[in-house]
Design goal:
GO molecular function: all-trans-retinol dehydrogenase (NADP+) activity
Number of helices: 10
Oligomer: single chain
EC number: 1.1.1.300
Order of helices and strands: HEHEHEHEHEHEHEHHH
Bound molecules: NADPH dihydro-nicotinamide-adenine-dinucleotide phosphate, retinal
Largest sheet: 7 strands, parallel
Membrane topology: Multi-pass membrane protein
Number of domains: 2
Distance between the termini: 63 Å
Shape: globular
InterPro entries: NAD(P)-bd_dom_sf, SDR_fam
Number of strands: 7
Family: Belongs to the short-chain dehydrogenases/reductases (SDR) family.
CATH superfamily of the largest domain: NAD(P)-binding Rossmann-like Domain
Radius of gyration: 20 Å
Structural class: alpha/beta
Strand content: 5-15%
């Protein structure tokens, strides 16, 4: 008898959740205030990280900026300070667990409790699997995936103590569906998506409803990280690479609306769904038609060229 009641309650919840999601698609979401929150952004010296920092600064958040590139990070810090917020920049190597824990300890004593964590830093090997040095493949997993464990272990306890916080995972469309020649990246971003989902379940199971999570899954963004990656010529104007500022503004709206997940552009929900719904060969046929199967080849060529020209190291 109890199971029948539970089943009915579940069906009501399910219907409500679907209707709410449909309605929210058409309504302007209510955005929360983050004025005075302490927000830590990783990869803050990079393209999206810098824009995230400036958007959080505009919302009045105090910033803690992490990056391995001290000069680029300091530049972001300067730009954010010009917007009138307090900024603390730290040089850290996210591929090293001890570096994360040590820097997290310094943040706790020197600045205070972080209430918003934006795990944005990311890398890609950009080589064919069989030609890629092992260390480079490992680095992608360490930075894009393992660092999420250590960052969360370092900062979640403070959030739990107050039942207040927000953890943002910048993953990728390539964490939801995959393509050729980016095995390291897809493995790490699928890992990041799984991490985000499991953490979200854990927080809800513990009734820590004051700690929010948001997963950000963009398509190619014009930051240079995937320079050369392209789909079939005729379809490029239909799904062009994203502008970095647009990507960050869309992500900010999702974060401030406490949205669980965002695909940018929305069109990316389609390959995400079809990957699960259609047979492998049907997906393959659409990938081939759209040039999704070989989209990374010019990117890999580009990286090879930059190695030849000495612009990047071979290992
Ligand atoms: N660009 C794109 O097309 C897309 C990007 N994304 C994701 O968005 C995020 C930001 O990407 P984007 O801004 O384009 O990339 P960038 O390369 O511009 O920025 C990444 C930043 O992270 C830093 N970083 C790299 N490794 C480490 C490390 N071990 N420790 C500390 N910092 C590190 C980089 O430093 P340095 O430059 O010195 O290496 C850089 O400043 C990434 O997670 C990426 O995977 C998702 C979808 C599409
Ligand atoms: C595979 C594939 C596509 C191409 C996707 C691309 C090119 C994604 C690139 C993403 C990047 C660079 C993410 C970085 O984090 C299409 C055309 C949407 C159709 C469906 C299959």
């Amino acid at each position: 008898m109890i199971i029948i009641v539970d089943l009915l309650l579940m069906l009501i919840d399910l219907t409500y959740a679907i209707l709410a999601a449909v309605v929210q698609t058409f309504l302007r979401p209510r955005l929360k205030s983050i004025d005075g929150e302490l927000c830590l952004i990783t990869g803050a010296g990079g393209a999206l990280g810098r824009l995230f920092a400036l958007e959080f600064a505009k919302e009045g958040a105090r910033l803690v900026l992490w990056d391995c590139n001290a000069a680029a990070n300091e530049r972001t810090a300067q730009l954010a300070r010009e917007l009138g917020v307090k900024v603390h920049a730290y040089t850290v190597d996210l591929s090293r667990r001890e570096s994360i824990y040590e820097t997290a300890g310094r943040v706790k004593t020197e600045v205070g409790d972080v209430s918003m964590l934006v795990n944005n830093a990311g890398v890609v090997a950009g080589r064919r699997l069989l030609e890629c040095p092992d260390e480079l493949l490992e680095r992608t997993l360490l930075v894009n995936c393992h660092a999420l464990f250590w960052m969360t272990k370092a900062f979640l306890p403070q959030m739990k103590a107050k039942n207040h916080g927000h953890i943002v995972t910048v993953a990728s469309a390539l964490g939801l569906f995959s393509t050729a020649c980016v095995e390291d990246y897809c493995a790490s971003k699928f890992g990041a998506v799984g991490f985000h989902e499991s953490l979200t379940h854990e927080l809800l199971a513990e009734e820590l409803d004051g700690i929010k999570t948001t997963l950000v899954c963009p398509y190619i963004v014009d930051t240079g990280m995937f320079a050369g990656c392209e789909i079939r010529k005729e379809l490029r104007s239909l799904i062009p690479p994203l502008e970095p500022l647009y990507t960050v503004q869309q992500s900010m709206t999702a974060i401030l609306a406490e949205q669980q997940m965002i695909c940018i552009p929305r069109l990316m929900y389609i390959p995400f769904l079809t990957r699960a719904l259609l047979p492998w060969d049907a997906n393959l046929a659409t990938y081939r038609f759209m040039g999704g199967d070989k989209c990374m080849l010019p990117f890999i060529k580009n990286v090879e060229q930059r190695i030849c020209n000495g612009h990047i190291k071979s290992s």
